[in-house]
Amino acid sequence: MRNFQYQKADSVEAAVAAHAGQPSAFVAGGTTLLDLVKIDIMQPERVVDVNGLPLFDVEELDDGRLKIGAMVSNTDLAYHPAVQKHYRVLSEALLAGASTSLRNKATTGGNVMQRVRCPYFRDGVSACNKREPGAGCAAIGGDNRSVHAVLGTSDQCIASHPSDMCVAMAAIGATVVVSGPSGEREIDFLDFHLLPGDSPQKEHALDTDELITHVVLDAPIKGNKSHYLKLRDRASYQFALASAGVIVATDGDTIREARIAMGGVGTKPWRAQQAEKTLIGQPATQANFQKAAELAFADARTYAHNAFKVPLGQQAVVRSLTTVTA
Protein backbone atom coordinates (compact mmCIF):
# COMPACT_ATOMS: atom_id res chain seq x y z
CA MET A 1 0.00 0.00 0.00
CA ARG A 2 1.39 3.38 -1.02
CA ASN A 3 0.22 6.53 0.71
CA PHE A 4 -0.61 9.62 -1.33
CA GLN A 5 -2.08 13.05 -0.70
CA TYR A 6 -5.55 13.85 -2.02
CA GLN A 7 -6.61 17.36 -2.94
CA LYS A 8 -9.83 18.56 -4.55
CA ALA A 9 -9.57 21.55 -6.88
CA ASP A 10 -12.37 24.03 -7.53
CA SER A 11 -10.73 25.93 -10.40
CA VAL A 12 -8.33 25.25 -13.24
CA GLU A 13 -5.75 27.53 -11.62
CA ALA A 14 -6.05 25.68 -8.30
CA ALA A 15 -5.71 22.32 -10.03
CA VAL A 16 -2.55 23.38 -11.87
CA ALA A 17 -1.05 24.82 -8.69
CA ALA A 18 -1.86 21.69 -6.68
CA HIS A 19 -0.26 19.50 -9.33
CA ALA A 20 3.06 21.35 -9.19
CA GLY A 21 6.06 20.51 -7.07
CA GLN A 22 5.88 16.73 -6.71
CA PRO A 23 4.90 13.59 -8.68
CA SER A 24 1.16 14.14 -9.07
CA ALA A 25 -1.78 13.00 -11.15
CA PHE A 26 -5.13 14.52 -12.05
CA VAL A 27 -8.15 12.30 -11.49
CA ALA A 28 -11.55 12.74 -13.14
CA GLY A 29 -13.46 9.54 -13.93
CA GLY A 30 -10.41 7.52 -12.85
CA THR A 31 -11.05 4.71 -15.33
CA THR A 32 -7.37 4.60 -16.30
CA LEU A 33 -5.57 6.23 -13.37
CA LEU A 34 -7.09 4.14 -10.60
CA ASP A 35 -6.37 0.91 -12.47
CA LEU A 36 -2.72 1.84 -12.89
CA VAL A 37 -2.35 3.01 -9.29
CA LYS A 38 -3.84 -0.25 -8.01
CA ILE A 39 -1.31 -2.32 -9.93
CA ASP A 40 1.52 0.04 -8.90
CA ILE A 41 2.39 1.21 -12.41
CA MET A 42 1.61 4.83 -11.58
CA GLN A 43 2.79 6.02 -8.18
CA PRO A 44 1.60 9.61 -7.66
CA GLU A 45 2.49 11.27 -4.38
CA ARG A 46 -0.52 13.55 -4.78
CA VAL A 47 -3.84 13.00 -6.57
CA VAL A 48 -5.66 16.17 -7.62
CA ASP A 49 -9.42 15.69 -8.05
CA VAL A 50 -10.71 17.83 -10.94
CA ASN A 51 -14.36 16.76 -10.82
CA GLY A 52 -15.31 20.17 -9.41
CA LEU A 53 -13.99 22.13 -12.39
CA PRO A 54 -16.52 23.92 -14.63
CA LEU A 55 -15.61 21.94 -17.75
CA PHE A 56 -18.82 20.04 -18.45
CA ASP A 57 -20.20 22.07 -21.38
CA VAL A 58 -20.36 21.33 -25.10
CA GLU A 59 -20.54 24.60 -27.04
CA GLU A 60 -21.10 25.25 -30.75
CA LEU A 61 -18.81 28.15 -31.69
CA ASP A 62 -19.64 30.89 -34.17
CA ASP A 63 -17.07 29.57 -36.67
CA GLY A 64 -18.75 26.14 -36.76
CA ARG A 65 -16.33 24.34 -34.44
CA LEU A 66 -17.45 22.36 -31.40
CA LYS A 67 -15.83 23.12 -28.02
CA ILE A 68 -15.94 20.19 -25.61
CA GLY A 69 -15.13 20.53 -21.92
CA ALA A 70 -12.58 18.05 -20.61
CA MET A 71 -15.05 16.80 -17.97
CA VAL A 72 -17.78 15.86 -20.46
CA SER A 73 -18.41 12.14 -20.07
CA ASN A 74 -18.05 9.77 -23.01
CA THR A 75 -21.75 8.95 -22.75
CA ASP A 76 -22.89 12.58 -22.78
CA LEU A 77 -20.62 13.37 -25.71
CA ALA A 78 -21.77 10.36 -27.74
CA TYR A 79 -25.42 11.36 -27.38
CA HIS A 80 -24.99 15.13 -27.70
CA PRO A 81 -27.25 16.38 -30.55
CA ALA A 82 -24.45 18.31 -32.28
CA VAL A 83 -22.17 15.27 -32.23
CA GLN A 84 -24.84 12.94 -33.57
CA LYS A 85 -25.78 15.42 -36.30
CA HIS A 86 -22.36 16.62 -37.50
CA TYR A 87 -19.80 14.12 -36.15
CA ARG A 88 -21.40 10.71 -36.41
CA VAL A 89 -17.97 9.03 -36.55
CA LEU A 90 -17.25 10.34 -33.05
CA SER A 91 -20.55 9.17 -31.61
CA GLU A 92 -20.06 5.70 -33.10
CA ALA A 93 -16.47 5.50 -31.84
CA LEU A 94 -17.47 6.44 -28.30
CA LEU A 95 -20.29 3.91 -28.22
CA ALA A 96 -17.95 1.20 -29.51
CA GLY A 97 -15.62 1.71 -26.55
CA ALA A 98 -15.80 0.03 -23.15
CA SER A 99 -19.04 -0.66 -21.27
CA THR A 100 -21.92 1.68 -20.47
CA SER A 101 -20.81 2.06 -16.86
CA LEU A 102 -17.27 2.99 -17.93
CA ARG A 103 -18.53 5.45 -20.55
CA ASN A 104 -20.65 7.10 -17.88
CA LYS A 105 -17.52 7.80 -15.82
CA ALA A 106 -14.81 8.28 -18.44
CA THR A 107 -14.19 11.88 -19.49
CA THR A 108 -13.09 13.54 -22.71
CA GLY A 109 -9.81 14.75 -21.22
CA GLY A 110 -9.12 11.43 -19.56
CA ASN A 111 -9.77 9.52 -22.77
CA VAL A 112 -7.25 11.68 -24.62
CA MET A 113 -4.72 10.78 -21.89
CA GLN A 114 -5.55 7.06 -21.92
CA ARG A 115 -2.47 4.85 -21.60
CA VAL A 116 -1.57 1.66 -23.44
CA ARG A 117 -2.95 -1.78 -22.62
CA CYS A 118 0.26 -3.67 -23.37
CA PRO A 119 0.43 -6.50 -20.78
CA TYR A 120 4.21 -6.12 -20.51
CA PHE A 121 3.73 -2.47 -19.52
CA ARG A 122 1.04 -3.32 -17.00
CA ASP A 123 2.49 -6.42 -15.33
CA GLY A 124 5.14 -4.40 -13.50
CA VAL A 125 7.96 -6.94 -13.96
CA SER A 126 8.57 -7.45 -17.69
CA ALA A 127 11.09 -5.40 -19.64
CA CYS A 128 9.31 -2.21 -20.72
CA ASN A 129 10.95 0.98 -21.92
CA LYS A 130 7.72 2.90 -21.43
CA ARG A 131 7.60 2.01 -17.75
CA GLU A 132 11.38 1.89 -17.16
CA PRO A 133 13.47 3.59 -19.85
CA GLY A 134 16.37 1.42 -20.97
CA ALA A 135 14.84 -1.84 -19.74
CA GLY A 136 14.02 -3.17 -23.21
CA CYS A 137 10.73 -4.19 -24.82
CA ALA A 138 9.44 -7.66 -23.99
CA ALA A 139 6.59 -7.29 -26.49
CA ILE A 140 8.89 -7.30 -29.52
CA GLY A 141 9.93 -10.90 -28.88
CA GLY A 142 6.85 -11.91 -26.93
CA ASP A 143 3.10 -12.18 -27.48
CA ASN A 144 2.38 -9.18 -29.70
CA ARG A 145 -0.88 -10.21 -31.34
CA SER A 146 -3.69 -8.02 -30.07
CA VAL A 147 -2.63 -4.73 -28.49
CA HIS A 148 0.54 -4.08 -30.46
CA ALA A 149 1.01 -1.85 -33.46
CA VAL A 150 2.29 -2.17 -37.02
CA LEU A 151 2.52 1.59 -37.70
CA GLY A 152 4.71 4.09 -35.88
CA THR A 153 6.66 1.49 -33.92
CA SER A 154 10.31 1.63 -32.92
CA ASP A 155 12.89 -0.74 -31.48
CA GLN A 156 11.93 0.70 -28.09
CA CYS A 157 8.13 0.17 -28.07
CA ILE A 158 5.37 -1.36 -30.20
CA ALA A 159 2.32 -0.85 -27.94
CA SER A 160 -0.77 0.35 -29.82
CA HIS A 161 -2.83 3.32 -28.66
CA PRO A 162 -6.10 2.01 -27.19
CA SER A 163 -8.61 4.86 -27.64
CA ASP A 164 -11.56 4.70 -30.04
CA MET A 165 -12.55 8.32 -29.37
CA CYS A 166 -9.11 9.58 -30.34
CA VAL A 167 -9.25 7.82 -33.71
CA ALA A 168 -12.47 9.69 -34.55
CA MET A 169 -11.00 12.99 -33.38
CA ALA A 170 -7.90 12.41 -35.51
CA ALA A 171 -10.16 11.97 -38.54
CA ILE A 172 -12.25 15.04 -37.73
CA GLY A 173 -9.33 17.31 -36.87
CA ALA A 174 -9.18 19.01 -33.49
CA THR A 175 -7.24 21.22 -31.10
CA VAL A 176 -6.38 20.29 -27.52
CA VAL A 177 -6.56 23.30 -25.20
CA VAL A 178 -4.34 23.02 -22.12
CA SER A 179 -3.65 25.23 -19.14
CA GLY A 180 -0.47 25.35 -17.07
CA PRO A 181 1.73 27.58 -14.95
CA SER A 182 2.59 29.64 -18.05
CA GLY A 183 -1.05 30.08 -19.06
CA GLU A 184 -3.16 28.55 -21.81
CA ARG A 185 -2.00 27.11 -25.12
CA GLU A 186 -3.35 25.00 -27.97
CA ILE A 187 -1.93 21.78 -29.43
CA ASP A 188 -3.01 20.32 -32.75
CA PHE A 189 -4.63 16.96 -32.05
CA LEU A 190 -2.40 15.16 -34.56
CA ASP A 191 0.66 16.45 -32.68
CA PHE A 192 -0.63 15.69 -29.18
CA HIS A 193 0.21 11.97 -29.04
CA LEU A 194 3.87 11.21 -29.67
CA LEU A 195 5.55 8.36 -31.51
CA PRO A 196 7.65 6.16 -29.22
CA GLY A 197 10.94 6.68 -31.05
CA ASP A 198 13.80 6.49 -28.57
CA SER A 199 11.72 7.82 -25.66
CA PRO A 200 8.48 5.82 -25.37
CA GLN A 201 8.00 7.04 -21.79
CA LYS A 202 7.06 10.44 -23.29
CA GLU A 203 3.55 9.76 -24.57
CA HIS A 204 2.10 13.23 -25.19
CA ALA A 205 2.96 16.86 -25.84
CA LEU A 206 1.82 18.16 -22.45
CA ASP A 207 4.39 20.05 -20.45
CA THR A 208 4.85 19.35 -16.74
CA ASP A 209 1.85 20.48 -14.66
CA GLU A 210 -0.40 21.20 -17.66
CA LEU A 211 -4.08 20.19 -17.62
CA ILE A 212 -6.38 19.56 -20.58
CA THR A 213 -9.36 21.92 -20.33
CA HIS A 214 -11.07 21.49 -23.72
CA VAL A 215 -10.96 19.69 -27.03
CA VAL A 216 -12.17 21.81 -29.95
CA LEU A 217 -13.33 19.88 -33.03
CA ASP A 218 -12.85 21.38 -36.48
CA ALA A 219 -15.97 22.60 -38.24
CA PRO A 220 -17.72 19.71 -40.02
CA ILE A 221 -17.08 19.20 -43.71
CA LYS A 222 -20.11 20.34 -45.68
CA GLY A 223 -22.25 17.44 -46.84
CA ASN A 224 -20.10 14.81 -45.17
CA LYS A 225 -20.99 11.28 -44.18
CA SER A 226 -18.88 9.47 -41.61
CA HIS A 227 -18.52 6.07 -40.00
CA TYR A 228 -16.45 4.22 -37.39
CA LEU A 229 -15.82 0.51 -37.79
CA LYS A 230 -14.17 -1.47 -35.00
CA LEU A 231 -12.91 -5.01 -35.59
CA ARG A 232 -12.13 -7.06 -32.47
CA ASP A 233 -12.02 -10.57 -31.07
CA ARG A 234 -15.51 -10.31 -29.58
CA ALA A 235 -18.43 -8.02 -30.30
CA SER A 236 -18.17 -5.80 -27.21
CA TYR A 237 -15.99 -4.73 -24.28
CA GLN A 238 -12.79 -5.34 -26.23
CA PHE A 239 -10.01 -3.19 -27.63
CA ALA A 240 -9.69 -2.92 -31.41
CA LEU A 241 -7.52 -5.27 -33.39
CA ALA A 242 -8.04 -2.73 -36.16
CA SER A 243 -10.49 0.12 -36.61
CA ALA A 244 -11.19 2.86 -39.11
CA GLY A 245 -12.87 6.22 -38.76
CA VAL A 246 -13.65 7.84 -42.10
CA ILE A 247 -15.31 11.05 -43.25
CA VAL A 248 -16.21 11.53 -46.91
CA ALA A 249 -17.96 14.26 -48.90
CA THR A 250 -18.85 13.67 -52.53
CA ASP A 251 -20.05 15.61 -55.54
CA GLY A 252 -22.12 13.02 -57.31
CA ASP A 253 -19.91 9.94 -57.52
CA THR A 254 -16.68 11.94 -57.16
CA ILE A 255 -14.92 12.27 -53.80
CA ARG A 256 -14.51 15.94 -52.85
CA GLU A 257 -13.01 15.45 -49.38
CA ALA A 258 -11.82 12.39 -47.46
CA ARG A 259 -10.46 11.75 -43.99
CA ILE A 260 -9.11 8.39 -42.81
CA ALA A 261 -7.90 7.55 -39.32
CA MET A 262 -7.11 4.14 -37.89
CA GLY A 263 -6.93 2.54 -34.47
CA GLY A 264 -5.52 -0.67 -33.02
CA VAL A 265 -2.71 -0.61 -35.58
CA GLY A 266 -0.71 2.47 -34.61
CA THR A 267 1.31 3.61 -31.62
CA LYS A 268 -0.88 6.75 -31.71
CA PRO A 269 -4.26 7.53 -33.31
CA TRP A 270 -3.18 7.12 -36.92
CA ARG A 271 -4.22 9.58 -39.64
CA ALA A 272 -3.60 8.29 -43.18
CA GLN A 273 -3.19 11.63 -44.94
CA GLN A 274 -1.39 10.34 -48.03
CA ALA A 275 -4.13 7.79 -48.58
CA GLU A 276 -6.72 10.56 -48.26
CA LYS A 277 -5.04 12.61 -50.97
CA THR A 278 -5.24 9.75 -53.47
CA LEU A 279 -9.04 9.72 -53.13
CA ILE A 280 -9.65 13.42 -53.79
CA GLY A 281 -11.24 13.93 -57.21
CA GLN A 282 -11.56 10.19 -57.79
CA PRO A 283 -14.68 8.06 -58.26
CA ALA A 284 -15.96 6.32 -55.15
CA THR A 285 -15.07 2.79 -56.26
CA GLN A 286 -13.88 -0.36 -54.52
CA ALA A 287 -10.68 -0.27 -56.55
CA ASN A 288 -9.84 3.25 -55.39
CA PHE A 289 -10.73 2.38 -51.80
CA GLN A 290 -8.40 -0.63 -51.91
CA LYS A 291 -5.54 1.46 -53.32
CA ALA A 292 -6.01 4.00 -50.52
CA ALA A 293 -6.11 1.24 -47.90
CA GLU A 294 -2.91 -0.30 -49.21
CA LEU A 295 -1.18 3.08 -49.17
CA ALA A 296 -2.33 3.63 -45.59
CA PHE A 297 -0.29 0.57 -44.57
CA ALA A 298 2.66 1.09 -46.92
CA ASP A 299 5.02 1.73 -44.01
CA ALA A 300 3.69 -1.05 -41.78
CA ARG A 301 6.21 -3.09 -39.82
CA THR A 302 4.85 -6.40 -38.61
CA TYR A 303 5.94 -8.70 -35.79
CA ALA A 304 5.68 -12.41 -35.04
CA HIS A 305 1.97 -12.51 -34.20
CA ASN A 306 0.35 -9.36 -35.63
CA ALA A 307 1.02 -9.41 -39.38
CA PHE A 308 -2.71 -10.13 -39.84
CA LYS A 309 -3.40 -6.53 -38.78
CA VAL A 310 -2.29 -5.23 -42.18
CA PRO A 311 -5.00 -6.96 -44.26
CA LEU A 312 -7.49 -6.55 -41.39
CA GLY A 313 -6.79 -2.83 -41.16
CA GLN A 314 -7.08 -2.48 -44.92
CA GLN A 315 -10.42 -4.26 -44.76
CA ALA A 316 -11.61 -1.85 -42.07
CA VAL A 317 -10.72 1.14 -44.26
CA VAL A 318 -12.37 -0.28 -47.39
CA ARG A 319 -15.53 -1.32 -45.53
CA SER A 320 -15.85 2.07 -43.85
CA LEU A 321 -15.39 3.97 -47.11
CA THR A 322 -17.90 1.68 -48.80
CA THR A 323 -20.44 2.29 -46.04
CA VAL A 324 -20.32 6.09 -46.29
CA THR A 325 -20.48 6.15 -50.09
CA ALA A 326 -23.06 3.40 -50.64
UniProtKB/TrEMBL annotation:
Keywords: FAD, Flavoprotein. PANTHER family: OXIDOREDUCTASE (PTHR42659:SF1), XANTHINE DEHYDROGENASE SUBUNIT C-RELATED (PTHR42659). SMART domains: CO_deh_flav_C. Gene3D superfamilies: 3.30.465.10, CO dehydrogenase flavoprotein, C-terminal domain, Uridine Diphospho-n-acetylenolpyruvylglucosamine Reductase, domain 2. This is FAD binding domain-containing protein. PROSITE patterns: FAD_PCMH. Residues 1-222 form the FAD-binding PCMH-type domain. The keyword Membrane does not apply. InterPro entries: CO_DH_flav_C (IPR005107), CO_DH_flav_C_dom_sf (IPR036683), Diverse_Substr_Oxidored (IPR051312), FAD-bd_PCMH (IPR016166), FAD-bd_PCMH-like_sf (IPR036318), FAD-bd_PCMH_sub1 (IPR016167), FAD-bd_PCMH_sub2 (IPR016169), Mopterin_DH_FAD-bd (IPR002346).
